[in-house]
Amino acid sequence: MRRERYNAEILFVVALFFIYTICALLLSVMVADNYRMGAERSERNFNMRTSVLYLTEKVRQTNSAEGISVRQTAEGDALVLGMSAEGERYETWIYVEDGYLREVLMSKGADLTPGIGQKIMPLSSLELELGQEGLLQIRVIDQTGERYDGKVFLEAAGEENAV
Fold first, then answer.
1. How far is 115 from 106, CA to CA, in rounded Å?
2. What's residue 159's pLDDT?
3. Phi/psi class of residue 132: alpha, beta or left (left: φ > 0; alpha: ψ in -120 to 50)?
4. Which of the 8 DSSP states describes residue 140?
């Protein structure tokens, strides 16, 4: 009778150990999955905020409001920033193509050829609206459909329109 009780106690301890091990493994899997989802969400948010800040800084680096325009490409809006160097006129095109925000520097009036832009970061869509009062509204959309908005005031355009 003593031996049966001893065997039952050992079986109980072994069963308890296996239950503990299974719970620990399940908890580890759940934590790893939550960490992965949080890291992916953080990277998406970083890319979206960075893309809006990138566009904002490019606009601020452009000297005049006349050098800033919004044009159309095959896949949507493009921000075109004009500049002069050594007597030549150039345009920097920032646009989305094939799932990436891209940038290319070209001579003014040159045609935008698909695939020539430098990849900046992953992005699904870029929507731009240049208001008469000098406010550029920026909306970026990532591959999951999440969107992020930003605005930048074009000081030269605002001064011209302010009376």
1. 13
2. 44
3. alpha
4. E
